[in-house]
Structure formats: C-alpha cells, structure tokens
C-alpha cells in the first residue's frame, strides 16, 4: 500500500506501538510518499513490538453456520431437503446457514457442494433441465 498513490498513512489503532523515532512508526501524510519508496528497516525493538501486538490482537475466527438448519420443522429445522423455508412459499436458502450442525471441515468445499445441489434443485423446479 505504501507504494500506491492513494497512500496517506496508516491507521494507528491497527498497528503495533513502535517506539518514538522508529522508522516503522505510523505516519500520516497529505501527499503520496516520494519515489522511490524504500522498505522499512525494522529494529529488534520493532520486532518485539510486532510480536507483542500479535499476542494481544490476533485471535481465531469462525464462519457462521447452521442458523437456518435443514431438517424437519418439529425438530428445529428451517429448510427442507429442497431448500424451501418451512411455511413460506417461494423462499429458498442455499448457503452455509442450512448445515444442520457445526462442522469441522473446510467451509468452502461445503458451500460449493450446497451451491451445486441448489443449482440442480432450481433447474429441476424451473423445468430447465433435460
């Protein structure tokens, strides 16, 4: 980003607190950085500040899923096997919210499988298939 003409400095809350005078300290500018933009020379103290920032700010992230689970209505299900929302005419859900329970697998692969199955269902219901 520092090499792009749009660069006008970093947003300090998302960066480590570097010591005053550090070449790695956040800056704000009204103009792009002058050419050529040089790499930042990090000192051992800068590296410690980066390590500290990671320990204090990095956490895990999860992909929300199973909020409209597939299953029978009387068992807490929201959509049926054809992705139709129980009790609602013409509404279907085709995303990771239909997974009946949290999974310990790659969410991308599951989302792709849901999308492919949804396409088959839509094609069939719209009479577009052979």
From TrEMBL:
Superkingdom in the source lineage: Eukaryota
Entry-linked InterPro entries: FAD/NAD-bd_sf, GMC_OxRdtase, GMC_OxRtase_C
Family in the record: Belongs to the GMC oxidoreductase family.
Residue ranges of domain Glucose-methanol-choline oxidoreductase C-terminal in the record: 31-115
Protein name, as recorded: Glucose-methanol-choline oxidoreductase C-terminal domain-containing protein
Organism: Bionectria ochroleuca
């Amino acid at each position: 980003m520092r090499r792009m003409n749009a660069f006008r400095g970093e947003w300090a809350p998302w960066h480590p607190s570097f010591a005053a005078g550090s070449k790695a300290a956040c800056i704000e500018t009204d103009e792009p950085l002058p050419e050529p933009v040089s790499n930042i020379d990090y000192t051992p103290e800068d590296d410690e500040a980066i390590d500290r920032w990671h320990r204090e700010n990095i956490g895990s992230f999860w992909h929300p899923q199973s909020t409209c689970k597939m299953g029978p209505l009387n068992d807490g299900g929201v959509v049926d096997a054809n992705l139709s929302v129980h009790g609602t005419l013409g509404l279907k859900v085709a995303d990771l919210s239909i997974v009946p329970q949290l999974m310990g697998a790659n969410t991308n692969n599951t989302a792709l499988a849901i999308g492919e199955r949804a396409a088959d269902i839509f094609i069939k219901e719209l009479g577009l298939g052979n």
